[in-house]
Amino acid sequence: MALRVCVFLLLSIVVCSCTRYEPTWESLDSRPLPSWYDDAKFGIFIHWGVFSVPSFGSEWFWHSWKTGVKSVVDFMKSNYPPDFTYADFAREFTAELYNPDHWADVFKASGAKYVVLTSKHHEGFCNWPTNVSFNWNAQEVGPKRDLVGDLAKAIRKRTDIHFGLYHSLFEWYNPMYLQDHENGFKTRYFVERKSMPELYELVNTYKPEVVWSDGDAGPVDYWNSTGFLAWLYNDSPVKDTVVTNDRWGAGTSCKHGGYYTCQDRFNPGKKQNHKWENCMTIDSGSWGYRRNVDLANYLTAHQLITTLAETVSCGGNLLMNIGPTHDGRIVPVFEERLRQMGEWLAVNGEAIYGSVPWSHQNDTLTKGVWYTSKKTDDGGTAVYCIMLAWPENDVLKLGSASPQTGLAVSMLGYPGLVKWTPLGGTAGIQLQMPVISAAKMPCRWAWVFKLTYQSV
Q1: CA distances (Å), 351 to each of 41, 307, 386, 446, 448, in order?
Q2: CA–CA separation, 443 and 404 (whole Å)
Q3: pLDDT score of 456
Q4: Which CATH number among 3.40.50.10750, 2.20.28.160, 2.60.40.1180, 2.60.120.1060 corresponds to the domain 369-453?
Q5: pLDDT tier at 377 (50, 70, 90 boundaries)?
Q6: What pLDDT, in 10s, does the model give residues 9-27?
Q7: Which listed residue, 154, 267, 402, 449, has the most CB atoms within 10 A of its CB?
Q8: Which CATH number, 1.20.1090.10, 3.20.20.80, 2.120.10.30, 1.10.290.10, labels domain 22-351?
């Protein structure tokens, strides 16, 4: 009898660990999100393509040109001959200064735990030597190299960062897509011959742990997104670790997929019921690199850390975008911001990585204070109070924190305890800021207090 019970339990474990997902949203949405993604909290987005050559306006340069946006039309008239086409930009997408090892080192220094590289944007140019694109790819024209593969190798060789890929489902001016669109998406020439074969090729070749889909120009049935996701979760080489977003066709955003992006720069300011991601840009006006950007358009380190605190406190991940140049450089302002994020996370990462939302996301009394939390080894709770601005009178009043017996308060990166006193009643405490010299200040922008509550 004991042997039979053991065999039954063993078989049950095997069955439970071999869940098969059906190509329906009900089944696919039931898949648990791999835990590494929620723990990671912070990633780097990279928009790089032929649009990096004109580097004017935004990564939507081609579409803006074709649809008559005046600034773009005037730019082309002033700088290029009348017969110049967008395809002619590809030969100038040279990437001669592209050093994937340097990129990997910068990303590691930023404190990011995952990276998502553009494999193909809406322009249709593929940054890898795909078998389903005639010559509109980085191996055949421009760089003459595998931009995706080179970065994947560098990331995996030099860091423990998870490697991911962005892929646009549709292409603005691909003749097959335009034909399917003209046919009311009743035909699927583009999906069957181009878009879906690319996705399978990318996953099988580069094994990305994030598949970041974009472009809802067409219904889900047209794209057969559920069929691809069922294969991805069941049979792909990354089936156990891959995470996906929610942009898999019209109507899926913020409703289906592994985690929700909802819209670009989504930052709701309150806790969400489903795992989500805030994808945003250091250059507030563009995802791709642009030469006509003003300094004021670059978010400061303080603004970026503020966005990180707001996002993580509400249960989200921050995916922060940079745009490399046509020749493969991460320009100094982007590198500086990445390294500044890493500098801050080196001190305060305990409050970010692996954290969960607390009962309060921001403070009820003082603005510019956000909370995260973790369980302590002894069963208590560590609450992390992220203070975005130093209080003028050196006293921080926290309406959300309770003055429980045994509460210990410290500042991350600074030795010793921080003095606290009750505000009065059953809720609220105030912290007396420690006297710290400039040389010993643990960080430059935002400061984190750790409130350790004992188990009850």
Answers
A1: 11, 14, 8, 12, 8
A2: 28
A3: 57
A4: 2.60.40.1180
A5: confident
A6: 444 333 344 789 999 999 9
A7: 449
A8: 3.20.20.80
